[in-house]
Amino acid sequence: MEMKLAENIRTFRKERGLTQEQLSEVLGVTAGAVYKWEAGLSVPDLDLIMEMADFFDTSVDVLLGYEMKDNHLEATKKRLQEYRHRKDREGLAEAEKALKKYPNSFKIVRECVAMFSGFGFESSDTEMLKRALELSERSLLLLDQSTDPDVSEQTIYGSMATTYLGLGETDKALEILKAHNAGGMFDRDIGHALAITEHADEAEPFLSKALAKITSDLTVTVTGYMNIFATRGDYVSTEAVLQWGVDVLQGLRKDGKPNFFDKVCSGFLAALAYAKLRLGKKEEARDTLIEAKKLAEFFDENPSYDETDVRFITRIEGASAHDDIGATAMDAIENVIDESQSEELASLWRSVKENNDDNE
Description:
By secondary structure, the chain is mostly helical. Helix content is 68%, strand content 0%.
């Protein structure tokens, strides 16, 4: 608790236009006593504090400068979050107090885990990281209280593994990650951890699976953004996100071979041409459709759904590629054009298909 008694005595005195001597006469004390109070060198007796509060027409709490905290669970959780967001290390002491009051609250325990792990990583403080692990174990026992869909046993174990890595206990981290790698959710982390050990050669299969998932997620994410921006009529953003997606996926070409993402990019390029048309860039739209046609023909001539034809990815046991964009890359373009319901785009596409010179 922080009191501002000294400051408040001085403030209230000055507001009433009193000198220290005049206030001392009111209270029946020496001017030196008032001076010491205002300088924080001493504290008046309780009866004098009550008398001053009455004289200044205020409450004892206000005179002391004491603010009652809301210590209910939700307010405590929010206060801990604010300490953490401000990177205020006073929150560490508040966290321990909260744990004493709410030792079996999942919300409080998880917020304290975040507090100790955050400050622990920032300052390389092993004791804080160990405290975070201890509280993580407790949170697992309280998990049935959680109503947060983003928190599960797997996510808690994942954060624990990260903490073990911070402590330099790589083997323990890997043990946890491998034991809870449902659906390959920790492939990236396992690959990263293995890559810095003497078992680096074991990292590649995990990293390959992680990269395959990332690129798959990327195509869906770009498509989602494309639809959002187009619905808003924001074709500048539509153009930008599609071009970015194409650039990233084309960077996965290996040894000049076709790969599955060529088919995806054929559809992206058709959508990109539509965005350019809406922006009044007809010549660029035509060039983009020519590029889409060339890429589709390149893929359809020798279609590959083999993950090893994608740069950086090695054989993934049981892997297979499936999509709903069309049987061929050319179909993917046609489907995008049909869905656009743009006669201008369809007309431009017919012109590109009929003009073989464009492909030379």
